Structure to design on (547 residues):
C-alpha cells in the first residue's frame, strides 16, 4: 500500500481505529511527521492530542547510525551488543544530553502546556511509519511511566520483524501495511508520494489549531452563549502601512490601534487603543534600524502580552540582523540576541520572507517561519521570455535559493554558481562553475552595498555574458557602490517589497514585486483552523539539493 501523504495515511488509520471513537482515549504523536498523521486520527476520534518526544542516540563514531533511543523519563532502548562496546561515561552523558533535548523540544512545541494524563485511558501512539522501531519503542516505555489502561500503536507501515517486537511491548498494533523484511522498501518515505520534511513550525501550528478547535467545541457544548471572539487583530507600524489594505483579505481580520510617542527625554512610550485580552494578535513591521524600530516593535509586543493577548505573531518581512549569526570571538552575536528579545517581549512565533540561512532557525528560541518568494521571482524570469537564459548564484550561500527559482521557472539550463577561494598568499579568487548563456539572471537574498553582486557581474562579463538581470528578495540599496552594477551589463534589478525602497533610490530600472500574496496565504491558513500543511516549498529554499 502506498500513500499520497501523511494526511491520507492518518485518515486511513483513523478508520481502522473507529472502535475507539467516543471512548476514553488520548492520541500521542511522535514528532515531527507523526503529528501530521496523528491529528487526523485525533480529529476523527474527537480525542485530545499530545506528544511523546523521543531521541535517537547515534554511535559515537557515526552519529547517523542509531544504537539506542530514549524519551524524557522512559527506559533506554537499544542494541545490547552495540551498547556494550561504547564507553559507559560517554553513553551516560549522551543519554542525559538527549533527555534535556527532549525537554527543550517539549517546551518549544507545547509552550508550557500541561501534559495530558494517560492514567486509566487508552493511549494511541502514532508515527508516520516505522523501520527499526527504536524511537517508537522508547515512546512505548515513556507511555508506560504514565500508567495507561492500554497502549495501542498505530502506524501506516512497519516491517514484519519490527511489528513482532512491537506486538510484545504494546497491547495492540494497528498498521495499514506490514511487508515482509525482504519486501520492505528500505525506508518509510518510499511508501509515500509526498514525504517532504516536517518543520517545527508545522508541528506547533497543528497543535495550536487543534487545541483551538477543541476549545471552541467545548464552549459550544457547555454553553448556549456564542463562543468568545478569537479572530485576529493586525497591528501595523508606518513602515508597512502599504500592506495593510491587501492584508484585509484575511477573513475576520480587524485592525488594531496604538500610538507611539516620546517623552521629553526622548524615551519611547506606547499607548494601546484596542482591547486584546485572549485575542490573536499579528504585529507587522520592521526591526531595522534597531535604534528606533526594534525598541518600538518590542514595546508593542510586550504591551500586547501584558494585556493578556492569547498569541502574538511577529510578521517581519525583512529579518534584520540575520547576518550576525556566527559565534565569533569578541564579535557581536546579534541574530541570537534578537531572537531572545522577541521571545522575552511575548512573541510566540515569527513570520519572515527568505531568511538568510537555515542556521538562524536554530538560534531563535521561538518558531521562525520563512516564506519562499521563489514563485514570485520565477514569474518575472518567465516574463522575460528569453529562451536561452542561465540562472546564477553569486556565492555558495545563494545556491539553493537560485536553484529553487530555476526549477520554479522551468529553466532547462543548469544552474551556474560562483564560489570564493583563497590562494596560499591569502588572495581571494572567484571560481565560476557551470555553462553560461549570453543572458543570465542572478538570484540572491539581499542587495545591500552590492559588493558580492558587483564581483559576480565582473566575473560574468569576463566570461562573455552580455545581459544581466538581478533578482533579490530584500533591496536595502545601502550607499552608492551598488550603482556601479549598471556599468557591468545589468539591465534591470528586481526586488520585493519586504521593506520600502529607500527614498534616494530611483526606481527607473528597478522593479518592486509584492510579497503580500505570500503573507495573505500564510496568515489565512494560520487563522483558518487549518491542520495540515501540504506545500513542500512553503517555508524556505532549503529543501532543494545543491548541484
Amino acid at each position: 500500500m502506498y500513500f499520497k501523504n501523511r494526511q491520507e495515511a492518518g485518515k486511513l488509520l483513523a478508520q481502522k481505529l473507529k472502535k475507539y471513537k467516543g471512548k476514553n482515549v488520548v492520541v500521542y504523536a511522535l514528532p515531527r511527521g507523526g503529528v501530521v498523521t496523528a491529528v487526523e486520527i485525533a480529529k476523527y476520534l474527537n480525542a485530545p492530542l499530545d506528544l511523546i518526544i523521543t531521541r535517537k542516540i547515534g554511535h559515537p563514531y557515526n552519529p547517523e547510525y542509531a544504537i539506542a533511543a530514549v524519551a524524557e523519563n522512559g527506559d533506554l532502548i537499544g542494541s545490547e551488543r552495540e551498547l556494550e562496546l561504547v564507553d559507559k561515561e560517554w553513553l551516560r552523558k549522551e543519554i542525559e544530553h538527549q533527555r534535556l533535548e527532549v525537554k527543550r523540544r517539549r517546551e518549544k512545541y507545547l509552550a508550557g502546556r500541561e501534559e495530558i494524563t494517560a492514567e486509566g485511558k487508552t493511549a494511541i501512539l502514532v508515527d508516520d511509519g516505522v523501520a527499526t522501531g527504536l524511537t517508537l519503542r522508547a515512546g512505548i516505555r515513556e507511555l508506560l511511566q504514565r500508567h495507561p489502561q492500554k497502549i495501542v500503536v498505530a502506524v501506516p507501515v512497519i516491517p514484519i520483524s519490527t511489528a513482532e517486537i512491537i506486538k510484545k511491548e504494546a497491547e495492540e498494533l494497528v498498521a495499514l501495511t506490514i511487508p515482509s523484511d525482504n519486501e520492505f522498501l528500505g525506508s518509510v518515505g518510499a511508501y509515500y508520494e509526498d514525504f517532504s520534511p516536517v518543520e517545527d513550525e508545522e508541528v506547533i501550528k497543528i497543535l495550536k489549531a487543534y487545541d483551538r478547535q477543541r476549545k471552541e467545541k467545548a464552549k459550544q457544548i457547555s454553553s448556549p452563549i456564542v463562543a468568545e471572539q478569537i479572530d485576529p487583530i493586525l497591528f501595523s507600524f508606518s513602515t508597512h502601512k502599504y500592506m495593510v489594505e491587501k492584508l484585509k483579505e484575511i477573513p475576520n481580520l480587524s485592525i488594531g490601534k496604538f500610538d507611539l510617542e516620546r517623552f521629553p527625554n526622548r524615551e519611547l512610550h506606547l499607548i494601546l487603543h484596542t482591547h486584546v485580552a485572549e485575542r490573536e494578535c499579528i504585529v507587522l513591521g520592521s526591526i531595522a534600524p534597531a535604534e528606533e524600530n526594534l525598541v518600538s516593535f518590542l514595546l508593542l509586543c510586550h504591551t500586547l502580552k501584558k494585556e493578556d493577548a492569547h498569541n502574538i505573531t511577529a510578521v517581519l518581512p525583512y529579518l534584520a540582523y540575520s547576518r550576525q549569526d556566527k559565534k565569533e570571538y569578541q564579535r557581536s552575536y546579534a541574530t541570537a540576541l534578537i531572537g531572545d528579545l522577541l521571545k522575552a517581549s511575548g512573541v510566540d512565533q515569527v513570520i519572515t520572507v527568505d531568511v538568510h540561512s537555515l542556521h538562524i532557525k536554530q538560534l531563535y528560541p521561538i518558531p521562525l517561519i520563512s516564506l519562499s518568494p521563489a514563485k514570485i521571482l520565477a514569474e518575472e524570469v518567465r516574463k522575460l521570455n528569453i529562451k536561452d537564459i542561465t540562472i546564477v548564484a553569486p556565492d555558495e550561500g545563494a545556491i539553493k535559493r537560485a536553484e529553487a527559482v530555476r526549477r520554479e521557472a522551468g529553466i532547462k539550463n543548469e544552474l551556474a554558481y560562483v564560489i570564493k577561494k583563497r590562494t596560499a598568499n591569502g588572495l581571494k579568487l572567484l571560481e565560476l562553475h557551470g555553462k553560461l548563456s549570453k543572458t543570465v539572471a542572478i538570484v540572491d537574498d539581499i542587495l545591500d552595498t552590492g559588493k558580492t553582486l558587483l564581483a559576480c557581474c565582473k566575473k560574468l562579463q569576463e566570461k562573455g555574458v552580455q545581459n544581466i538581470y538581478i533578482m533579490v528578495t530584500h533591496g536595502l540599496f545601502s550607499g552608492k557602490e551598488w550603482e556601479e552594477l549598471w556599468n557591468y551589463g545589468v539591465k534591470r534589478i528586481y526586488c520585493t517589497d519586504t521593506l520600502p525602497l529607500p527614498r534616494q533610490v530611483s526606481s527607473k530600472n528597478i522593479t518592486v514585486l509584492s510579497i503580500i500574496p505570500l503573507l495573505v496565504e500564510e496568515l489565512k491558513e494560520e487563522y483558518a483552523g487549518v491542520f495540515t500543511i501540504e506545500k513542500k516549498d512553503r517555508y524556505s529554499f532549503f529543501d532543494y539539493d545543491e548541484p
